[in-house]
């Protein structure tokens, strides 16, 4: 049933299933953008602000040199101080005025006026300070000369930032995706509100009572039951799962929550008849296309800093280690026939499937892409060179390409193969908190690695310990913790003679 056809009541029997494009619904974009890509777009606010800070600093230095006809270090405090204060005030006001949020309905003219206002106020404060300091810092020749070029630079930059954000929004990189559990009247209201505002994508509806659910709700298709949601290919692109089940049905809500606990996605629950929990969660998603800069312990800022750290270090490492890559590649080819690299699909951020690179350490005919059989001591599948590479963890070096490309980080939970098994069971089903390790990008090394939890997992206890260490890292992640883990990785790996790798 298409979006133009009246939708049956959620209580009506389920009609025959339509096929093809009719199942896409009114919101489904032509191309699903992963949550990882959308988060990187939202974190761009920190990059924009960093460029602004550098540009204002350079412009201020040039102005001071031009006005003073001397180097910046020779300028008097009376002349330099008002300009410095004006720049700091302008920068703080840009942040306070929300100039890095780029709201969905913000017009370019209004945004640029906000930028000019921040510079004007900064210049005015600097002028007052110059007057208080004394005649050595005349505001007419310093602050006006500072304000004009700085305003021009910021206007050009922010016009560019605004254009970039609009382009990302058209591509769907900033539009939140949600799915709804429960084909109920709450779900219908969510869909109708979303249709009116077009601020979120409702990708689909899932209902654990599929036999009694309609084919669609207000044009959004019912795609299956909760089990279908857990394994659906769109799940890595979902920002929020909204449970629209009657909250008074506690047993049913608990059952749904338990089944969704295997996913790393955020979940919101309709907590009353007015849909308060639902509306607040969706509003926060829709109204914050870019990460706010003024939140205590802002996760966007931490993620941006972590990404800068990853790009810089992995880029330098790839250049410096190029000769090592070449030597290992030659050794792998001479040791056994087959490709130099081994590629394996693994779980990434938010359960996204990523392709992880390694140097090949097994015979080609014995390669295990799904880690059904984990490596054991004296494993006959491992080649002679492969055994050396595994012992020293040099087989992991190509993952620097994953880090540089953004699918992995230098530090984080190790990425596990999709469908990896521990004994006869899939590893992800052995621990309730397993999904939490996918709330951050996987890493080349991590807290678990330096604590001895590396390589294969041969028992449920191994899985529990690995997950516990990974969750500890996620809860305490910081720049200094990452630096400590990277510092300790080499001695931890080389000093552990018991681990099977």
Describe the structure.
The chain is α/β, with parallel strands linked by helices. The chain folds into three domains: 20-29 and 175-287, Rossmann fold; 39-171, no CATH class; 299-495, no CATH class. 49% of the residues lie in helices and 10% in strands. The protein has 16 helices and twelve strands. The strands form four sheets. A six-stranded mixed sheet has the order 3-4-2-1-5-6, with helices on both faces. Helix 2 (44-68) runs antiparallel to helix 3 (77-96) and helix 2 packs antiparallel against helix 5. Residues 1-22 have low confidence and may be disordered.
Sheet with the most strands?
6 strands, mixed
How do the strands of the widest beta sheet line up side by side?
Answer: 3-4-2-1-5-6
- Helix share, percent: 40-55%
Mean pLDDT: 79
Unreliable sequence segments:
1-22
Give a short overview:
It contains 16 helices and twelve strands. With 501 residues, it is of the alpha/beta class.
What topology does this entry show?
Elements: H1 35-42, H2 44-68, H3 77-96, H4 108-133, H5 139-171, E1 177-181, H6 185-197, E2 201-206, E3 216-217, E4 220-224, H7 226-231, E5 240-243, H8 250-260, E6 266-269, H9 276-287, H10 299-320, H11 322-335, E7 341-347, E8 353-359, H12 384-392, H13 399-405, E9 409-411, E10 421-422, E11 425-426, E12 443-445, H14 447-450, H15 460-476, H16 479-495
Parallel strand pairs: 1-2, 1-5, 2-4, 5-6, 9-12
Antiparallel strand pairs: 3-4, 7-8, 10-11
């Amino acid at each position: 049933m298409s979006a133009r056809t009246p939708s049956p009541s959620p209580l009506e029997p389920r009609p025959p299933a339509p096929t093809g494009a009719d199942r896409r619904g009114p919101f489904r974009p032509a191309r699903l953008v992963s949550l990882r890509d959308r988060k990187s777009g939202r974190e761009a606010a920190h990059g924009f602000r960093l460029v602004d800070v550098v540009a204002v600093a350079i412009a201020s230095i040039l102005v001071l040199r031009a006005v003073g006809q001397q180097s910046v270090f020779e300028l008097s405090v009376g002349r330099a101080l008002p300009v410095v204060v004006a720049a700091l005030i302008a920068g703080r006001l840009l942040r306070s005025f929300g100039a890095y949020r780029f709201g969905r309905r913000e017009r370019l003219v209004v945004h640029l006026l906000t930028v000019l206002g921040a510079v004007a106020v900064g210049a005015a404060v600097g002028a007052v300070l110059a007057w208080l300091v004394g005649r050595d810092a005349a505001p007419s020749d310093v602050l006006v000369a500072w304000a004009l070029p700085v305003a021009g630079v910021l206007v050009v930059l922010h016009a560019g930032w605004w254009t970039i954000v609009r382009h990302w929004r058209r591509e769907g990189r900033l539009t939140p995706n949600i799915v709804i559990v429960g084909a109920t009247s709450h779900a219908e209201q969510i869909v109708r509100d979303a249709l009116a505002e077009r601020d979120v994508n409702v990708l689909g509806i899932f209902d654990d009572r599929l036999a009694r659910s309609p084919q669609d709700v207000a044009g959004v298709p019912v795609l299956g039951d909760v089990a279908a949601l857990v394994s659906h290919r769109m799940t890595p692109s979902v920002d929020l799962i909204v449970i629209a089940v009657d909250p008074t049905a506690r047993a049913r809500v608990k059952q749904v929550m338990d089944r969704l606990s295997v996913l790393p996605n955020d979940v919101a629950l309709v907590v009353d008849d007015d849909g308060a929990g639902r509306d607040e969660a969706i509003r926060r998603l829709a109204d914050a296309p870019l990460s706010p800069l003024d939140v205590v312990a802002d996760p966007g800022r931490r993620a941006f800093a972590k990404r800068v750290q990853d790009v810089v270090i992995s880029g330098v490492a790839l250049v410096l280690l190029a000769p090592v890559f070449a030597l290992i590649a030659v050794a792998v080819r001479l040791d056994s026939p087959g490709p130099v690299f081994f590629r394996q699909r693994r779980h990434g951020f938010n359960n996204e499937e990523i392709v992880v690179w390694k140097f090949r350490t097994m015979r080609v005919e014995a390669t295990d892409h799904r880690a059904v059989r984990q490596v054991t001591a004296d494993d006959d599948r491992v080649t002679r060179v492969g055994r050396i590479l595994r012992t020293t963890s040099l087989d992991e070096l190509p993952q620097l390409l994953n880090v540089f490309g953004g699918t992995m980080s230098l530090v984080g939970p190790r990425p596990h193969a999709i469908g990896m098994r521990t004994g006869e069971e899939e590893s992800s089903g052995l621990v309730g908190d397993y999904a939490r390790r996918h709330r951050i990008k996987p890493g080349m090394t991590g807290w678990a690695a330096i604590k001895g939890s590396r390589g294969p997992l041969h028992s449920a206890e191994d899985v529990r310990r690995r997950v516990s260490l990974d969750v500890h890292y996620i809860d305490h992640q910081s720049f200094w913790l990452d630096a400590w883990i990277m510092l300790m990785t080499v001695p931890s790996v080389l000093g552990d003679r018991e681990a099977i790798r």
